[in-house]
Amino acid sequence: MISLPHQRYQLGQCVINCYDMTITAQNNTVSLPAKVFEFLKLLIQHPAQTVTKEQAIEQVWQGNIEVGKRGTGNAIWQLRKSFSELGEQPEDYFKTVNKVGYQLLISPTPITSATIKSQQKSDHKKPAFIALTVLFISCLAFFINQKATELTAPPTRINVAPERITNFEGVEERPAISPDGRLMAFQWRKEGAKGHLYIKDLQDESAPLRQISMSHDTEAVPSWSPDGQSLAYLRTTSDNQCFVHVRDLISNQDKQLDSGCVSKGYLHSLEWSPEGSTLAYSKAVDDRSVIHLYHFNSNEVQALTSPAPGEHDLMMTWSADASQLAVMRSQENMIAKILLYSLSDDSETTIISDETLVIGLDWEHSSNQLYFTALREADFVIQQYNVESQALTSFHQDETISSITISETSNSLYYARHISQEHITHRSLIDGSIIRQLISSSRDLYGQYLPATDELLFLSNRSGDWELWLKQQSDNIMLTDNIGMVTIPAPSPVSSLYVAPIRTKGLEYNELYLGDTQNNSLAKIEPVKGNVRYASFSTDGNNIYYSSFVDGDWGLYNYNLATNKVELLLKQNIKYAIEDDNNGLYYTLDNVSGIYYWNRQTNQHDKVNDSLRAKDWGSFFYQNNTLYFLERSDENDLIRALDSQGIVTTAFKLPAMSIRNERSLASGKDDSLIVSMQGINDADIYRIPLQ
After folding, report:
1. Which helix (H) or strand (E) holds 76?
2. Is the pLDDT of residue 454 over 50?
3. How far apart are CA 293 and CA 300, in angstroms?
4. What are phi and psi for residue 344, nearest 5 degrees?
């Protein structure tokens, strides 16, 4: 046992209690396993020093090398997760020294009886008028709240404490409850492994987990048949091919039904119809994602919905009589709408529009209500929509809610809650070492470096909306304020200019804006038309390349800053493009893996890379006559380099899935890059009653 001279310590905003192995912050308390707490005590003994893995193995695990190697990794993971659950930023407390050990960054302060008496004495001296002030403020707040309630929508119901259903190391996601309410199928992705499907008995805690898929592929999105004897699910191979499968749980026989499906993030993009005759799922079709139906009686596949180019129908849920589907349709900028699709007359009716982060959706049949996730003032909220009365109310609030599912039998809603500490790092291209951690916040995304000013552009929703921020040496400055939905910016390589597609309030499409960090100006580029997706600067900073939907077609365009002229370069569905030193363009296509190159001198197009996933469409950049791109394996996220001779090498590697999806790599300076990281990635499944 590691001994400390005191029983309680103040560590930042947290109190460490050695009596019962707990950590407390803001009236919330978490308990730690014995070995994890012993590891924390070891760090407390050596603040601001590197505690090596060998030290930890010797003192915490009594020299048991094999157990200790796994134990140290699990202990730091458990500490980071616990501090996150308390609302703290783990990066402020712990640092991993690569291949060496760990550091406690904050010096602990012992809490003694003298400290408590001093605090009590100070408390007694507080002026009495403070109590009166608090009473006055409370009354005023109550009055204001009452008035606001009279003028606004129905209030959010009082949050109930959710019941944790899973608590494994890794990500437990996409729950699906059997028709009788007894079993829960879900995806569990352990650290460094692919996601597989498991079944948990919700009524017998002693029953072991049943793993129902053991292939070498990623398996996700389980959906029960109405008789509870089969599971439909999506299987994604290492080359990013997606297939629809059904597994008979009695005979364990597995059958492939279709290919070309879409499985993005943790969206529930597959659902069995209530009467059992049909599967609904999302498939990639050119530049869009379309809901398809598989009919079991005829083995036929039918395209159902009709999204416009660049729109993606990614989630669906059936009505009780299977006559309607509620469908989540989104564009690239995280704005989504929910529509009701009638199978009898092929009509679409939009019932919810302009929502942010709709990443969970299900239909409660008994009361005919839809539940879906949304973002409200930087908080994740489950919304409740009454299909008959069209009333929309807030149902439940929690941190980073993703997929949701409803059990009619138990009258409960299940959801996955994530702990994911996004942050942006400035790293060496030589070995991946961190030069500096530029941002440390739970929702700061997609850093872009301005070499001319040594500043960083990034997105953040810390204010409640997705806004554009500027990171300087010591300050963070908001560049946009309540203008609308801002998407990933692009910095000039030679000046303080930047561009960003922005969907201003009241519009249903993005316009391209040009900003200047030196004078904090931001204005729409008037000649640019259409629905703009993503943009980049030419290497000399004189031109802006962007993808836009104009007159019914996607195209790649060029805007010249000097002449104020727009030119259509390619009339095809190019998602994102960057220029090289030879005036050629590297680009990616919607729903297609890999990177293409357009030699503008010869007008030849070649596919130069197959390994960039479609989900990572923007994670590549050009620097020092080399194309750098993200390649993922089961074990690692690799930063790969393609030189002018066509030779591919590995610059460095990070643990698997530690880099975010989409556009998470950006050019730095002096053999460096900017990486948008996921940090901790853990999710557990919770349950709350519907009433």
Report:
1. helix 65-85
2. yes
3. 8
4. -75, -35
DSSP 267: -
Mean pLDDT of the chain: 87
| 538 lies in the same domain as 500 | yes
Helix (H, G, I), strand (E, B) or coil at 640: strand
Cβ count within 10 A of residue 50: 15
Give the mean model confidence (pLDDT) for residues 326-333.
84
Q: Indicate whether 395 and 444 sit together in one domain.
A: no
Of 366, 385, 419, which marks where a domain is finished? Answer: 419
Asked if 141 and 160 sit in the same domain, the reply is no
CA distances from 462 to 74, 381, 610 (A): 30, 15, 36
Residues 468 and 545 in one domain: yes
Which amino acid is located at 205 in the chain? Answer: E
Q: Which residue has the higher pLDDT, 337 or 441?
A: 337
Q: Identify whether 234 is part of a domain.
A: yes
Tens digit of each residue's pLDDT (9 = 90 or more) over 7-18: 899 999 999 998
The token duo for 91 is 């990066």
- CATH code for position 173: 2.120.10.30
Range of the domain at 192: 153-419
Structure tokens at 414: 């299940």
Task: Please indicate, yes or no, whether residues 159 and 145 belong to a single structural domain of this protein.
Answer: no
Asked if residue 429 and residue 328 are part of one domain, the reply reads no
Q: How confident is the model at residue 126 (pLDDT cuts 50, 70, 90)?
A: very low
Quick one: which H or E segment has residue 36? helix 34-45
* Pair 100, 117 in one domain: no
- pLDDT tens column, 473-491: 777 888 998 888 899 999 9
Whole-angstrom distance, CA of residue 517 vs CA of residue 534: 19
Closest CA to 75 of 104, 49, 48: 104
What amino acid is encoded at 480 in this protein? T
Q: Side by side, which strands form the sheet with 242-248?
A: 218-224, 230-236, 242-248, 254-259
Total tally of structural domains belonging to the chain: 4
Q: Under a CB-based contact definition with an 8 Å cutoff, are residues 356 and 336 in contact?
A: yes
Q: Report DSSP state, residue 261.
A: B
**Is residue 423 within 8 Å of 440, Cβ to Cβ?**
yes
